[in-house]
């Protein structure tokens, strides 16, 4: 029997019994548990095989709920929260002592977000506790953007996937921390850098190795298909290196299908980066199940969501 269900009351019952439910968000599906239940939180790490040093994101129903989670909100954090929540932005702020160390991997900061999905907002509003929810995939694998992806990963491990359809944004939230009250991007994501800078001015990016391994989203190889994947600016040249193999192509707008290509996915024929981002992981899941020898991915223009997509492609691939 399928574990996918639209029954919010059932989700509330399972979560209240300290068990896990996969929840829909506008970024990716999350594997959720009560932040105050040690049993549930341990179970998140065990189910995902996620190392305990990787902290989790806390999901709250509104900006107002922030005050029960964090002890200090810099001015620019408040401005960002008021502008972009509910939305695809996670803020890392000083935690209150009630937030368990398991959630924060012992750090004195906690990552928190108001997700923008009607089903999960309704769930969060009815629950007496916030939800910790990392992406609902085994550690290092491609993140799930459809309930079926989660079912494929965890049907023997969890009781329920709360069905909220396909994730509209399709890549993880943008994570922003603060140093001396100034915002710093810890992970590029579904909210574009330019949109953030329009509100708070120039923002430093520490997306890569500097902060690793604090954040799993920062590991060099992450979000990865099991098929060997290459990222390139020059698809035709890359194809030549793999002639004779079963090749899959993942492009932004280019249509290069020919006899040597087994499978091709164009992420947005009209060149819309938001559309491309929303389809990215679904495309990776699909290509990864085509028995291919290699996947060749096209690098995106390096601005807007293209920057975030390139970040994910980079971590999925062996660059050439
Ligand atoms: P996931 O939900 O699987 O995308 O992973 C949660 C992300 O939030 C990871 O990249 C975490 O490292 C990051 N994160 C959570 N808490 C903190 C924190 N206190 N400081 C920095 N990054 C954090
Ligand atoms: Mg993840």
Q: Give the helix proportion (percent range).
A: 25-40%
Bound molecules: adenosine monophosphate, magnesium ion
Largest sheet: 11 strands, mixed
Total strands = 15
Strand order of the largest sheet: 1-8-2-3-7-4-6-5-9-10-11
Low-pLDDT regions: 209-214
Q: Strand pairing plus helix content: what structural class?
A: alpha/beta
**How would you state the average pLDDT, rounded?**
94
Give the count of helical stretches.
10
> From N to C, what is the helix and strand string?
EHEEHEHEHEHEHEEEHEEHEEHEH
What proportion strand?
15-25%
Describe the model.
The protein has 320 residues and is an alpha/beta fold. Helix content is 29%, strand content 20%. The chain contains ten helices and 15 strands. The strands form two sheets. An eleven-stranded mixed beta sheet has the order 1-8-2-3-7-4-6-5-9-10-11, sandwiched between helices. Strands 12-15-13-14 form a four-stranded parallel beta sheet. A hairpin with a 6-residue loop joins strand 2 (21-23) and strand 3. Helix 1 (8-16) packs across helix 5 (118-126). The chain is globular and about 60 Å long. The N and C termini lie far apart (44 Å). The model is unreliable at 209-214 (pLDDT under 50). Magnesium ion (MG) binds next to loops.
């Amino acid at each position: 029997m399928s574990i996918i269900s639209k029954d919010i009351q059932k989700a509330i019952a399972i979560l209240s019994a300290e068990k896990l439910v996969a929840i829909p968000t506008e970024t990716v599906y999350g594997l959720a548990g009560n932040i105050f239940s040690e049993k549930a939180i341990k179970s998140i790490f065990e189910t995902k095989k996620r190392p305990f040093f990787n902290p989790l994101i806390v999901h709250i129903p509104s900006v107002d709920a922030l005050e029960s989670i964090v002890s200090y909100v810099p001015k620019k954090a408040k401005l960002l929260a008021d502008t972009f929540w509910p939305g695809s932005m996670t803020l890392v702020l000083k935690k209150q002592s009630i937030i368990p160390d398991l959630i924060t991997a012992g750090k004195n900061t906690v990552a928190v977000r108001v997700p923008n999905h009607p089903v999960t907002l309704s769930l969060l509003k009815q629950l007496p506790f916030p939800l910790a929810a990392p992406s609902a995939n085994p550690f290092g694998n491609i993140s799930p953007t459809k309930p079926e992806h989660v079912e494929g990963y965890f049907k023997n491990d969890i009781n329920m996937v709360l069905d909220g359809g396909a994730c509209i944004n399709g890549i993880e939230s943008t994570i922003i921390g603060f140093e001396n009250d100034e915002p710093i991007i810890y992970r590029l994501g579904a909210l574009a850098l330019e949109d953030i800078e329009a509100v708070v001015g120039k923002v430093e990016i520490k997306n890569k190795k500097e902060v690793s391994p604090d954040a799993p989203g920062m590991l060099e190889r992450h979000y990865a298909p099991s098929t060997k994947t290459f990222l390139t600016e020059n698809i035709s040249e890359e194809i030549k290196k793999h002639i004779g193999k079963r090749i899959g192509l993942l492009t932004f707008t280019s249509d290069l299908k020919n006899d040597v290509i087994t499978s091709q996915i164009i992420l947005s024929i009209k060149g819309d980066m938001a559309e491309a981002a929303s389809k990215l992981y679904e495309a990776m899941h699909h290509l990864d199940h085509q028995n291919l020898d290699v996947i060749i991915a096209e690098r995106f223009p390096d601005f807007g969501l293209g920057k975030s997509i390139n970040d994910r492609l980079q971590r999925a691939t062996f660059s050439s």
